[in-house]
Amino acid sequence: MTAARLASLASQLPALRLLTDPSDLEHYGRDWTRRWTPAPLAIALPASVEEAQAVVRWAYENDVALVPSGGRTGLSGGAVAAHGELVLSLERMNKVLAFDAVDRTLTVQAGMTLQAVHDAAGQHGLIYPVDFAARGSCAIGGNIATNAGGIRVIRYGNTREWIAGLTVINGKGELLHLNRGLIKNSSGYDLRHLIIGSEGTLGVVVEATLKLTDPPAPSQVMLLALPDMTALMHVFALFRARLSLQAFEFFTDVALRHVLAHGAQRAIDGDHPYYVVTEFDADEEAALAVFEQGMEQGWIHDGVMAQSDAQAAALWRLREGITESLASHKPYKNDISLRISALPGFLAEIQALLGEEYPNMDVVWFGHIGDGNLHINVLKPATLSDADFIAQCDVVTKHLAQTLQQHGGSISAEHGIGLVKKPYLESTRTAEEIALMRGVKQVFDPKGLLNPGKVF
User: CATH number for the 96-211 domain, one of 3.40.630.30, 3.40.225.10, 1.20.1050.10, 3.30.465.10?
Assistant: First the structure.
């Protein structure tokens, strides 16, 4: 069956690059979750929209499931191919197609990395402002599929705010040109925004027109040491009121311990429960005044302001290096979101829950406090098997999802639902919403072949 299907695809598209080597199947069939054994049918690497469209049409005619694939840096199993799906990798479609100086847009193929997009925008004296640590390996198509956020959401918002137009292939292989770069367009439903955040279940993004903007004003970076979570919220309110923030990121002492062990350099002496890396438009006098006020209130115990670009990068590494420093510990990850005003009550409740449920495990907190997005990483003890560890964490996540529901939060802030969070979707969405979402899926993908088993 496998040989016949691949022969059929190869005969229809003789120029298509197809990979079937076991090492390629493993590499392209998984994402960063590493929970599922990759088992794709093959890897198709189209070099053009026409070739990608032909692959999707072939899949529709032959009832072959497809998993769209970008950089596979996802953390929810959204790019996993474990049941004989054909992986449709966009990595060869990685070029800039057009720059428009008047519209300030950059049109790119979906396989382009976020770093390459940054570089291309910079060549024109502009920026694409969405940014996060995986910039060198994540693909813009995957960013769109998960509505990626990152470290500067407080200033610029999520990916959704920066997409002017999309070219998408739906489940039948039809090509859709969504919004076409228009600023105003009230001609019916904006299907572009259905595709953004849909995790490849409605269509394959092949091209994107991105909005660009001016580089920010010169900035300063500061690292703060704080005594507790209550102080963290006070400091955020203080800094947001008095400074023009670009980023406000926090992490715990446990996170710092791991990132230091991974090669980062300590910037503040002593041990403190919480830390913040914040970046703001340069105003040293105002920043020092705010810092002193925080010290006087007892909300800040210590701090350092970067005096060079190199020192600023070193301070940012303390936050951005956390995920990589935890990878060898096989962390169980929760990526949650709440209204900022709901954070204090939720945190008091959830910290008690996690302390009770994980008394002998490292629980690493970090995240984007300025937009209500928290990352909770539970590290696997060496004495527990992978299966037993995940089973124990899944039980706790059920309680976490229930608590989030009570506080009006979401079980997924920016990583998507994928495979990992499917059991908890109902904590965030009502039955009526999920039914409508399934209906949308049916329209875009009548046979259910696009990224099957994800989200629902």
Answer: 3.30.465.10
